[in-house]
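Data deposition worksheet. Section B asks for the primary sequence of the deposited chain exactly as it was used as input, without tags or linkers unless they were present during the calculation. Section C holds the resulting structure in token form. Section D is free text for depositor observations; keep each observation to a single sentence. Incomplete worksheets are returned to the depositor.
Section A, Depositor: J.P.
Section B:
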Amino acid sequence: MASLFAGLEHAFGLHAEPKDFTMQQVILRAAVTYLVGLAILRLGRNRFLARDSAFDVVLAFILGSVLSRAINGTSPFLLSLAASALLVGIHQLFAWLSYRSQRFEQLIDGVPDPVVTEGRIIESTSRRHLLSEANIRTALRNKAQTDDLSRIEVARVEVNGEISFIPRHPPPRVVEIRVEDGVQVVRLEIS
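Section C:
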């Protein structure tokens, strides 16, 4: 058993200085870190990969940093892997608490903020999010495929920072009214 541990210590360079790592040790560290990271993410159900909120993005940055330290040896190998598992576990706990409590979810993720209502920009919201009219119109063209704010019922700054648009639906327009065989036929155009 002692020889197995000694072999693993040598294979991973567990007690070596990073500058003394061999090519094989770095390759083995990278491969194992990748596999352990993948397993941790699978256990974490990949939620944060969607990066729907700052909550998810922060984990992605920290996890990348911690796992890279396992490869390059700036932190102890096993401690880096354990810290990564702990971070994903905490993330899952917070995700579960957010699922169970709307208040906790709002505390962690934030809430969408209306920036356009009935075709008009809400100045206080645009100022709070530092969104100029040009920023809003760019998002309008890219997301809603229109340049006309009057066609928008509401636009919100979502918790991930993107702007979402809900278009106005004009009332149907009567195109034709006729009577056939005692039955009134009305043809509407919905745009």
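Section D:
Residues 112-191 form a domain with the CRO Repressor fold (CATH 3.30.240.20).
The beta strands are 113-117, 120-121, 152-157, 163-167, 173-180, 183-189.
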